[in-house]
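Bumping my old thread because nobody answered last time. Still need a sequence for this structure:
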């Protein structure tokens, strides 16, 4: 399912216009992204959780030349499926 299919499903289920459904979906995604950008955890009970994992700086290697390269610290978003979602998928 992509974003457009989600908007269509919301439009049909909630009996609202496509533009209203698109606005709701955009607000939802923007709110999640803003929370993650602040370093907060986003948890949707029974479905999933999103969190930011921080990585420290380390020395890596350029695979092409073999030279040592200093990798900067970084933060990456992670997704973890909830128990109910795991059970529903694994039928």
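Sorry it took so long. Here it is:
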């Amino acid at each position: 399912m992509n974003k457009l299919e989600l908007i269509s499903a919301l439009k049909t289920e909630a009996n609202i216009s496509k533009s209203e459904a698109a606005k709701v979906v955009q607000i939802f995604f923007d709110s999640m992204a803003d929370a993650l950008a602040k370093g907060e955890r986003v948890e949707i009970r029974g479905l999933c959780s999103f969190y930011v994992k921080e990585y420290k700086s380390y020395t890596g290697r350029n695979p092409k030349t073999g030279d040592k390269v200093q990798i900067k610290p970084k933060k990456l978003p992670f997704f973890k499926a909830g128990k109910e979602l795991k059970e529903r998928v694994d039928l």
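The longest strand covers residues 48-55. Let me know if any region looks off to you.
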